[in-house]
UniProtKB/TrEMBL annotation:
Family matches, as Pfam families: 7tm_4
Primary location: membrane
Coiled coil (UniProt feature): none
Entry GO CC: plasma membrane
Membrane topology according to the record: Multi-pass membrane protein
Organism placement in taxonomy: Eukaryota, Metazoa, Chordata, Craniata, Vertebrata
G-protein coupled receptors family 1 profile domain sequence ranges: 43-294
Organism name: Fukomys damarensis
TM regions (residue ranges): 25-52, 64-88, 94-122, 134-155, 199-223, 235-255, 275-296
Protein name, UniProt field: Olfactory receptor
SUPFAM superfamilies with a match to the protein in the record: Family A G protein-coupled receptor-like
Amino acid sequence: MLACNTTSTHPAIFLLMGIPGLEHLHIWISIPFCSAYTLALLGNNILLFIILADTALHEPMYCFLAMLAAIDLVLSSSTLPKMLAIFWFRDQEISFYACLVQMFFLHSFAIMESAVLLAMAFDRYVAICKPLHYTTILTGPLITKIGVAAVTRAVTLMTPLPFLLRRFHYCRGRVIAHSYCEHMAVVRLVCGDTRLNNIYGMAVAMFIVVLDLLFVTLSYVFILQTVFQLTSQEARYKAFGTCVSHLGAILAFYIPVVVSSVMHRVAREAAPHVHILLANFYLLFPPMVNPIIYGVKTKQIRERVLGLLLRKDAKG
């Protein structure tokens, strides 16, 4: 039977190490991190502005893209400002409750991103496999329900984490060997039976990654079946072309997640900074590249971005 502490003693403040073992390189490491964050802020804000301002883009695919941009803004902003403060000013202190809030936001919004990528796969499936029913299936109310479901799932799955951590006695110091408040990094400071936290964290990760990837894969199996049945090579190329941006976003999100997860379990003897850099990569890379992927590959977005820039140049 799992032990459950009835009282808890936690430090008022934790200390975030940044990148363990590479503290002397923090200033240099901050350059690509700051650049990635700047690109994420710029790109995702432009995407949101263009989609919200142009009623012609109020279609299912662009609604999901706007959701993705909003999630990426929160996901990157939940960790990067504090991380840069550590790198630049050695501001390592974070209060216990601020740490729990950061943990809740970064894990919740990562789960939301996975849900939106799954919804975008469904959008591509309907557009290619059931084009005549696209507007009747992907209605405004359904898109709203999908968005609400994505938020509800993430909040429901992540709400237990702060409460599970509050019940513990922290007797292994207050230094978190990480650049942000990642769940398992905080659990390592706990004295007591942490099996429930370990099992719950692993179960949620496996549930999200395996289930969402399974449905994304099934969507593309049906898409490929439909595309290969097309007689025209031009039609095949056009159908594949509508999926390229989404596939790029899928790869940008899931490859770092899977690699980081595998490294934690297979290469535990690897230097700590390797694990920390990988963990940062999957929080930084998707928010940075998603606007670039969709800006380059989506004609409507590309044209409106160019129009916005040219209009500014003309005014200047």
